UniProtKB/TrEMBL annotation:
Residues 46-205 form the Chalcone/stilbene synthase N-terminal domain. It holds the Pfam family Chal_sti_synt_N. This is Chalcone/stilbene synthase N-terminal domain-containing protein. It comes from Streptomyces sulfonofaciens. The keyword Transferase applies. One of its GO terms (biological process) is polyketide biosynthetic process. The active site is at C146. One of its GO terms (molecular function) is acyltransferase activity, transferring groups other than amino-acyl groups. Keywords: Transferase.
Length: 367
């Protein structure tokens, strides 16, 4: 059964390219200073940890020289809020264009961000700036972290299922440079300074009639067939984002990556149901949390490197850019989509410990 049609996403990255080499040198200088916030011995580990991320570059809304300077929470958050709203606005504009959709066509707006806290949130700004209807339903998703993109996409599909022509916009906008610390007492804190980037990604999700297929769609896009989500009880300490005087701090339990294959295998069984247990998708769009998370997802799905390569491409060229990274991977995949339909799986895991999965079919681009 088809639930919804996902038009090709759009993504907007931070305006400043941050090279891994520059980040490494900045971190080594900062961590090497004994100031009570650092273990100076960790400075010698920065280069090795950076190599293990496999990331080539990242993109931030502010230059590294500004972000790495000591600042209060307010000094970090205020410019990040402005950048998050601006990037999201541009991503939504492009997403509406990709869907050949007018602002007045939008029924609802699903918004995900875990950084840059502010009330009113970005949705109110986007409704005004983009001229969305005043009766647009706002669905904020502010506690999902890395899972925000996949979960928002699945929720949007549920909101429009069986409502032909109803359109819901999805936008995930994160300024993850705000969790940069330049201080570390354990290796994991260094890794978080090395992997995060800033990104806004958006798409339009359109309702399909019950039983409607992808036939007649011009593409490129995805037809959503099934959705699944699951939260593992008692796992709230696996990934955390807390707020202190100098901003937000992300932390993770070393055991968290080992939980990923278990959750993914559970998702696989539920999505397939009574269908062929040996079925395998042509392509997997996975949220690329880190160089450890993607292999863990591959292990859970039993897929080969080629099936998940598009997600690796997005990660290597920007790092973990928040929940929108999976939408960026879908954008990349659809822009190079083959002439024939592909069976795909979209999957993500995040704080909670939670996972969400989508089974879909690619609608190839037509001439």
């Amino acid at each position: 059964m088809s639930l919804a049609y996902v038009h090709r996403p759009a993504s907007v990255r931070g305006r400043y390219e941050v090279s891994m080499e520059e980040t490494v040198e900045t971190l080594k200088r900062a961590i090497g200073v004994p100031n009570g916030r650092n273990d100076p011995r960790l400075a010698d580990r920065v280069e090795g940890l950076a190599r293990n991320t496999l990331i080539k570059r990242r993109y931030w809304a502010r230059p590294l020289s500004e972000v790495s300077a000591t600042s209060t929470f307010e000094e970090r958050n205020e410019p990040a809020v402005e950048a998050m709203v601006d990037m999201g606005e541009r991503a939504l504009q492009d997403a509406l264009a990709n869907a050949d959709c007018l602002p007045s066509d939008i029924f609802g707006l699903v918004v995900s961000h875990s950084t840059t806290p502010r009330t009113p949130g970005p949705a109110q700004h986007w409704i005004t700036r983009l001229g969305l209807p005043r009766d647009t339903w706002i669905i904020p998703m502010t506690e999902l972290g890395c899972l925000g993109g996949v979960h928002s996409l699945a929720l949007a599909a549920q909101l429009v299922a069986g409502q032909p022509g109803r359109k819901v916009a999805v936008c995930v906008s994160e300024c993850l440079h705000t969790v940069y610390r330049g201080a570390a007492k354990k290796p994991g804190q260094i890794v978080h300074d090395l992997i995060y980037g800033d990104l806004a990604a958006a798409c339009v999700v359109e309702g399909l009639a019950r039983g409607e297929t992808s036939r007649g769609r011009s593409g490129p896009g995805l037809v959503v067939k099934k959705c699944w989500t699951h939260t593992v009880p008692g796992t709230t300490g696996k990934y955390t984002l807390t707020t202190g005087g100098d901003g937000q701090l992300f932390d993770s339990d070393p055991s968290a990556p080992r939980m990923v294959p278990e959750v993914i295998r559970l998702m696989w069984r539920e999505l397939l149901g009574e269908d062929d247990p040996g079925w395998s998708p042509d392509r997997v769009y996975a949220h690329p949390g880190s160089s450890k998370i993607l292999p863990a997802i591959s292990a859970g799905l039993g897929c080969n490197p080629e099936q998940i390569q598009t997600s690796w491409d997005s990660y290597l060229d920007g790092g973990n850019q928040g929940g929108g990274t999976v939408l960026d991977a879908i954008r990349r995949g659809l822009e190079g989509a083959p002439a024939h339909a592909e069976e795909v799986v979209v999957v993500g895991v995040g704080p909670g410990f939670s996972g969400t999965g989508i089974m879909a079919e690619t609608v190839a681009r037509t001439a």
